[in-house]
Amino acid sequence: MFRSVARSAAGKHLLRRGYATESVPDRKVAVLGAAGGIGQPLALLMKLNPLVSRLALYDIANTPGVAADVSHINTRSEVEGFVGEDQLGKALEGSDVVIIPAGVPRKPGMTRDDLFNINAGIVKGLCEAIAKYCPHALVNMISNPVNSTVPIAAEVFKKAGTYDEKKLFGVTTLDVVRAKTFYAGKAKVPVADVNVPVVGGHAGITILPLFSQATPSANLPEDVVVALTKRTQDGGTEVVEAKAGKGSATLSMAYAGAIFADACLKGLNGVPDVVECSFVQSTVTELPFFASKVKLGKNGVEEVLGLGPLSDFEKEGLEKLKPELKSSIEKGIKFANQS
Ligand code: NAD
Ligand code: LMR
């Protein structure tokens, strides 16, 4: 179904984004974990996105208030709140994109893998419901450990007979956001002009920013590149420690999640050349899942792009990350198949 937005402010915005026509398709986005630290600002940002026509906010508690609040904003989408498992099906039905920031965040001293025991079960349950109620939706997985929750989702969908590797994404956009910010600071270039691919996974050394491919190019000395790499890999921990027990990145994550969901929606709507990094099923390396640049299209992943030329430091980082990433992927697959 298409809704004309020709004379609205939203319509003007879309035309700026490169639309050739004056119509934009209806798109439903569901946020699971919408009352949480990420969920609330992400709900706000998705409410501001003119590509969204229906916004479903689901959580196990507190969604009616969040939904009522967000629903008063005078933008295109209709907002509905859903609370508790009984309402999960209704929240998901008809969704084009499902974003999952449900689950517990880290406290200082924890790794993302320490969240596995709680979050693996949460993600599994939510993915079983997605397979039932909106099997064709693009799934944007934010819940940690992403290196394991994405393989869990894939196994759940395989068991349900609904798996489409083009539609499952681990959201690693925050790593790219951080790499861009930190690089711009050191290279003294305008941050809005910066591009840096980040590949691998989303935990510690599995996060591999490719500063050798950063643009605008700045020829930074090796010790600066090493320090930038470490800061990007430890960006999540930097926030966890600064929040001192009150959780992990929420606002920057909501921003990153909104950018990635927007890219998915643009791809679905046929906007050409939409490219973002994401942790997806991949043949870029020997690992079954890997984050790299991905071209998004009308069916989700249109093309998983290769790594491009790597510096010796990046080649070394790539080899170092593989054992940890492999073991996190295998842990997810094992969990999904034994429980
Ligand atoms: P939070 O505790 O503030 O919010 C989580 C929300 O999930 C809560 O509202 C909770 O009620 C809800 N929830 C729990 N079980 C649920 C279920 N079965 N169904 C629906 N909702 C459920 O945590 P947060 O700070 O928003 O972080 C959420 C997750 O995102 C964590 O796992 C965190 O590690 C992860 N995260 C990932 C990235 C990334 O880059 N991918 C970045 C930041 C945080
Ligand atoms: C992040 O990168 O900020 C998230 O993965 C949250 C965390 O635990 O670090």
From TrEMBL:
Compartments in which it is found: Mitochondrion matrix
Domain Lactate/malate dehydrogenase N-terminal: 28-170
Chain positions recorded as NAD(+) binding sites: G33, A34, A35, G36, G37, I38, G39, D59, N119, I142, S143, N144, M253
Positions annotated as active site in the UniProt record: H202 (proton acceptor)
Xref: PROSITE patterns: MDH
Chain sites annotated for binding substrate: R106, R112, N144, R178
Major localisation: mitochondrion
Catalysed reactions, as listed in the record: (S)-malate + NAD(+) = oxaloacetate + NADH + H(+)
Keyword Transit peptide in record: yes
Domain of life where this protein originates: Eukaryota
Keyword NAD: yes
Any single Gene Ontology cellular-component annotation: mitochondrial matrix
Alphabetic keyword roster: Mitochondrion, NAD, Oxidoreductase, Transit peptide, Tricarboxylic acid cycle
Domain Lactate/malate dehydrogenase C-terminal residues, every copy: 172-335
GO molecular function terms noted in the UniProt entry: L-malate dehydrogenase (NAD+) activity
EC number of this enzyme: 1.1.1.37
GO process terms (BP): malate metabolic process; tricarboxylic acid cycle
Family: Belongs to the LDH/MDH superfamily. MDH type 1 family.
Subunit structure: Homodimer.
Protein's name in the database: Malate dehydrogenase
Organism listed in the record: Corchorus capsularis (Jute)
Lineage: Eukaryota, Viridiplantae, Streptophyta, Embryophyta, Tracheophyta
